[in-house]
């Protein structure tokens, strides 16, 4: 295969500095936020209805990915040298895809359930049970696993096991491009269209309705804004520039060096950092799926502030009063 050598961009800044820094931030914030969210979910389990099943699975998918981040952090800080088992490289990349597309899947399920409960409340009343939510959740996990499994068959270990790539080699870039385009369409474009369609209709209904409480309207509109933000910030750039990057590598493997390869590389690296943020931003859904969770978080923060204030005042009062030296009088 005639592979053209293109000018190489500076990879150290992105892969050895920015990416590990973002991963460290996502790991810390994501664990705290998801831990708090799952704890709040447990305390309000019966109040959340059938959507709690999807929110629970969304949190589990996030935690599964977050637990692999320390290994990726070490990988990038070591100068992109994989020091762990080669098989674990595949597991790490698989967990990333599992988190990404399960997150999209469960966010879609939450949107559909919200749509049905608001636009068609009489038709769905009593028909959407916990069993349905469990079965749908299992189906999402199975479909995403089936969708992500072919990715494991592509070569990801290079240079005697020292590299652990998230895509594949130049030799397989053309077939991988076909695979990732299909992956993008079914795993991202269709769910995004469903979410926009559901919440677009919901927005029209709640804006026209005079019976829906104002606070409920605000809660639903905030949830819509968060979902759109997640897709525009985290998911859309990742899929766009991943496909462009694979197309560029396909052209390079055929002997053509595109002028836009350098720009695509930079945006591709940036999108890799942004997509990892979804595990830290997904807990925002907890706040707006159930309105009392926001009040619960505010109450916890106020309690922590009061405890800190009491501790500070206690330390101030217990501090010894300075005595004047007789020689200073």
Please, could you describe this protein's structure?
- The protein has one domain (about 10-290): Rhopdopsin 7-helix transmembrane proteins (Up-down Bundle).
- A hairpin with a 4-residue loop joins strand 1 and strand 2 (about 165).
- It has about 325 residues and is mainly α.
- A two-stranded antiparallel sheet has the order 1-2.
- Helices cover about 75% and strands about 0% of the residues.
- The chain has helices spanning about 10-45, 50-65, 70-75, 85-120, 120-125, 130-150, 175-210, 215-255, 260-275, 280, 285-290, 290-320; strands spanning about 155-160, 165.
- Helix 4 runs parallel beside helix 7 and helix 8 runs antiparallel to helix 9.
Based on the model shown, name its key terms.
single chain, 329 residues, mainly alpha, Rhopdopsin 7-helix transmembrane proteins, two-stranded antiparallel sheet, 12 helices, 75% helix, 1% strand, disordered C terminus
């Amino acid at each position: 295969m005639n592979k053209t050598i293109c000018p190489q961009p500076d990879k150290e800044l992105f892969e050895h500095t920015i990416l590990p820094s973002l991963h460290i931030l996502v790991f810390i914030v994501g664990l705290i936020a998801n831990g708090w969210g799952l704890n709040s979910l447990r305390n309000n389990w019966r109040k959340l209805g059938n959507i709690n099943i999807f929110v629970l699975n969304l949190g589990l998918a996030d935690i599964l990915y977050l637990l692999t981040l320390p290994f990726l952090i070490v990988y990038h800080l070591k100068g992109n040298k994989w020091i762990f088992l080669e098989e674990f490289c595949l597991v790490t990349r698989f967990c990333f895809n599992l988190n990404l597309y399960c997150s999209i899947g469960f966010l879609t399920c939450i949107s559909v359930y919200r749509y049905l409960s608001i636009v068609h409340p009489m038709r769905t009343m009593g028909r959407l049970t916990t069993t349905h939510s469990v079965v749908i959740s299992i189906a999402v996990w199975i479909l995403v696993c089936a969708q992500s499994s072919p990715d494991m068959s592509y070569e990801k270990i290079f240079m005697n096991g020292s590299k652990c790539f998230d895509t594949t080699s130049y030799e397989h870039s053309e077939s991988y491009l076909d695979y990732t385009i299909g992956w993008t369409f079914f795993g991202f474009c269709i769910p995004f269209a469903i979410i926009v369609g559901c919440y677009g209709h919901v927005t029209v209904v709640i804006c026209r309705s005079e019976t829906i409480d104002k606070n409920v309207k605000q809660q639903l509109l905030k949830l819509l804004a968060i979902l759109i933000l997640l897709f525009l910030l985290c998911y859309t750039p990742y899929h766009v520039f991943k496909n462009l990057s694979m197309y560029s590598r396909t052209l390079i493997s055929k002997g053509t060096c595109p002028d836009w390869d350098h720009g695509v590389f930079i945006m591709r690296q940036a999108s890799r950092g942004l997509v990892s943020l979804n595990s830290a931003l997904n807990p925002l859904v907890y706040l707006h799926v159930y309105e009392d969770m926001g009040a619960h978080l505010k109450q916890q923060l106020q309690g922590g502030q009061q405890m800190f204030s009491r501790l500070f005042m206690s330390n101030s009062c217990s501090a010894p009063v300075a005595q004047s030296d007789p020689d200073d009088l």
